[in-house]
Amino acid sequence: MNTIKCPNCGNINSNKNIKCENCGTQLITEEQFRDKDLESNTQFNLVDNDKIDAFIDIFIGITTTIGGIIFSGLSSMIIFKGVDNFTKIIGIPFLICGLSVLIFGISLIVKRINKNRNTNIMLMV
């Protein structure tokens, strides 16, 4: 545990104290005390926020991928089981959009996994 020695009476105090426990002399300023608290809380919260952000990014990538699979599947059913040629032609742009959403979702997942592992594989997103 870090301690601070009082310049007035020589008493050893905790570094969390602003004033000496024995004589009441000011050890550190209130701004320095707040800065120490902010630094320790910020470092702790950054680790937790990074883990939460990683989970959210991967979850968004998974849901986007699932949506792309469903949309591509429905569009391909329209193309292959369409009644006439006009219906089949109309389904092609929807299939292309579904495949692009599917590829985007997969790239989000791979991008976040690579960021977590600190690898240098670059994806065009």
Task: Write a compact overview of the structure shown.
The protein has two helices and two strands. The protein has helices at residues 30-80, 85-117, and strands spanning 3-5, 12-14. A hairpin with a 6-residue loop joins strand 1 and strand 2.
Description:
Helices cover 67% and strands 5% of the residues. The chain has 2 helices and 2 strands. A two-stranded antiparallel ribbon has the order 1-2.
CA-atom Rg in angstroms? 29 Å
Which ranges are low-confidence, i.e. pLDDT below 50, for 5 or more consecutive residues?
Answer: none
By DSSP (H or I, 4+ residues per run), the number of helices equals 2
Gross geometry = rod-shaped
Largest sheet: 2 strands, antiparallel
Strand coverage percent: under 5%
Number of strands: 2
For the largest sheet, list the strands in their spatial order.
1-2
Mean pLDDT: 77
Please give the alpha-carbon distance between the first and last residues: 48 Å
Which class do the helix and strand fractions yield?
mainly alpha
Number of separate structural domains:
1
Order of helices and strands: EEHH
Could you estimate the helical fraction of the residues in percent?
55-70%
Oligomeric state, counting identical vs distinct chains? single chain
